[in-house]
Write a structure and sequence with these properties.
Strand content: under 5%
Number of helices: 4
Largest sheet: none
Shape: flat
Distance between the termini: 31 Å
Number of strands: 0
Helix content: over 70%
């Protein structure tokens, strides 16, 4: 659990920063939240890696969840559309992250050459 909490916070920070970046197009004051959010996201992602989560898993979950959450939240916040095709893409992102996560667990439990 100690690796998942900072990763979740990194995702929230990154999504907030990205949405603030979109808001800054109309109101430049949002750039401040954009900078703070991205700095926090990278710092929290670093904490996740320091806590022992494999980089492939951390980055897959961070990036994919960020993409999906940003796309979904942009609909009510900015009136952007989300087509059925985009919905399928988001579903594929989720499936891909699950596959990466499952694959990382299998990779850590495979015997090494000395153990065979």
């Amino acid at each position: 659990m100690s690796t998942w909490l900072p990763l979740a916070a990194a995702i929230v920070s990154e999504v907030s920063a990205t949405l603030a970046l979109r808001a800054a197009v109309d109101q430049p004051a949002w750039y401040a939240l954009t900078v703070v959010g991205y700095l926090a996201a990278f710092g929290l992602l670093a904490r996740t890696l320091e806590a022992g989560m494999p980089v492939g898993v951390a980055y897959a979950v961070w990036a994919a969840t960020g993409v999906a959450a940003t796309a979904v939240l942009a609909v009510p916040l900015f009136g952007e559309s989300l087509s059925p095709t985009a919905g399928v893409g988001i579903a594929l992102i989720v499936v891909g992250v699950v596959v990466v996560e499952l694959g990382s667990h299998r990779a850590t439990t495979r015997p090494t050459g000395a153990e065979r």
